[in-house]
From TrEMBL:
Cellular-component GO terms for this entry: plasma membrane
Main location: membrane
TM annotation in the entry: 20-46
Keywords in alphabetical order: ATP-binding, Cell membrane, Kinase, Membrane, Nucleotide-binding, Phosphate transport, Phosphoprotein, Transferase, Transmembrane, Transmembrane helix, Transport, Two-component regulatory system
Protein name: Phosphate regulon sensor protein PhoR
EC number assigned by the record: 2.7.13.3
One Gene Ontology biological process: cellular response to phosphate starvation
Role this protein plays: Member of the two-component regulatory system PhoR/PhoB involved in the phosphate regulon genes expression. PhoR may function as a membrane-associated protein kinase that phosphorylates PhoB in response to environmental signals.
Keyword Nucleotide-binding belongs to the record: yes
CDD domains: HisKA, PAS
GO MF annotation: an example: ATP binding
Length: 450
């Protein structure tokens, strides 16, 4: 309310009323009654009037129906009641809309095929839909307010919940039954978390069928492929003059059969990475020694390119992991650098510890990768340059294998590149996987005890 409205609607009417009281007291005082007593009586009546108006306002406000203000209200009390009434109407309208939206939300959440939970800053369940309670084996009413990690006790879930990022998800068996496979995602908002639980049992079955199909086909192809390769090598080694016109054909056949062999081997490797869940990934791996051997192999692979291949490795830093899988990851990245770096190029292999990660890094000044391809490089059979990849002998599965092997070591692959200037591939391992290289004395004791 502006000062102008306040003066016109509140102050002026009150002054008029007081003026009338004073005039009335003056007129009555001509009859001989003392003016002072008349003024006191008038002020008492004025105060009683406002007390009565206040009672009318409080009585009206206490009424739950809160209909239109009483007509008996005057002056400032009428203005106050009008403001109350308008705000109450707006509040009731907003409340009705909110109730309608909540009712609609409940209907929608019930119809959703996914489970949804809202968790507070102390990990307690504030709300969940019916689907979430059935997928996680929770009680929809009784478990509200309980800590989610006390209800879902799977160690992988607890670890995921305490360290999850926005783009991460977890797959595990449902607490309600092992035949149900769940995919869980956690989204932070304000000081709370939104948990989305999806039933991907059918998708898991289809993925399993695909994995088995790829593994079986790859195994079945190995034997006939070995026979074909054997015959091609036999024909190619035949030095008789009548075979000379077919030499180029045999060479092409050998090239393509070798490529098919590499493809089958990569498919089997990828299949093993997906299916072998009980491999020990906590062996002590001497990464510096491993990289030294890989660097030597890279020099041989480089051949006549005369590339400058350097190695910088922290000799005191080892890693907990699987030796075979890590060797495959590192050698894959280094061989890619050799294949896609031109003659006289620079390739640097590094192994070191940063504040947040243990890092194995391969940097080159090769052809680089265009930005639109980087996010898709780890997809199976994806090639940034299809023609060049085939010429280099690639199968399109190398980086997919790298990605899966790193995931089994709680690690991730980071790729940065500038087209025409080179690329940097980094394997980022959690610092918890790092171990100090054993001393010479420890190694001798281990040999003696063995």
């Amino acid at each position: 309310m502006s000062w102008n409205d306040y003066l016109n609607k509140v102050i002026v009417p009150e002054l008029k009323l007081l003026s009338l009281i004073v005039i009335a007291c003056l007129l009555i005082s001509t009859t001989g009654i003392p003016f002072l007593w008349l003024i006191i009586l008038g002020l008492l009546l004025f105060t009683g009037f406002h007390i009565y108006q206040m009672k009318l306002l409080l009585t009206w406000q206490a009424n739950k129906q809160m209909k239109a203000p009483p007509d008996e209200l005057r002056g400032i009390w009428s203005e106050i009641s009008t403001q109350f009434h308008q705000r109450n109407k707006h509040h009731r309208s907003t409340e009705a809309k909110s109730r309608h939206l909540i009712a609609q939300f409940r209907k929608v959440s019930t119809a959703l095929p996914d489970g949804i939970l809202i968790l507070d800053s102390l990990n307690r369940i504030e709300w969940m839909n019916k689907r979430a309670s059935s997928l996680l084996g929770l009680r929809q009413q009784q478990d509200r307010g309980s800590n989610i990690t006390n209800l879902v006790r799977d160690p992988s879930f607890v670890k995921f919940y305490n360290s999850s990022g926005e783009d991460e998800n977890l797959r595990l068996d449902s607490p309600a039954g092992n035949n149900i496979k769940l995919d869980i995602r956690l989204l932070p908002f304000h000081d709370k978390h939104l948990m989305i639980v999806q039933d991907f049992t059918r998708l898991h079955h289809m993925e399993k069928v695909r994995q088995d199909f790829v593994a079986n086909v790859s195994h079945e192809l190995r034997t006939p492929l070995s026979v074909v390769v054997g015959y091609i090598e036999t024909l190619d080694d035949d030095d008789s003059p009548e075979m000379e016109p077919y030499r180029a054909i045999f060479w092409q056949m050998k090239q393509q059969s070798d490529r098919m062999t590499r493809l089958v081997e990569d498919l089997l490797t990828l299949s093993n990475l997906e299916n072998e869940q009980h491999i020990n990934h906590n062996n002590e791996v001497a990464v510096p020694k491993m990289l030294e051997g890989i660097a030597d192999d890279a020099i041989i692979l480089s051949g006549n390119k005369n590339q400058n291949i350097t190695l910088e490795a922290d000799e005191s830093l080892w890693l907990k992991g699987n030796t075979r899988e890590l060797h495959g990851v590192f050698s894959n990245l280094v061989s890619n650098a050799v294949n896609y770096t031109p003659e006289l190029g620079e390739i640097a292999i590094r192994w070191y510890e940063s504040d947040d990660h243990l890092i194995m890094e391969v940097e080159d000044n090769g052809i680089g990768i265009e930005p639109q391809h980087i996010n898709r490089l780890t997809e199976r059979f994806y090639r940034a340059d299809k023609g060049r990849s085939r010429d280099a002998g690639g199968t399109g599965l190398g980086l997919a294998i790298v990605k899966h092997a790193l995931q089994r070591h709680d690690a991730q692959l980071s790729i940065s590149s500038e087209f025409g200037k080179g690329s940097v591939f980094r394997c980022l391992f959690p610092t918890e996987r790092g171990i100090d290289a054993p001393s010479i004395e420890d190694t001798e004791d281990h040999i003696l005890s063995a």
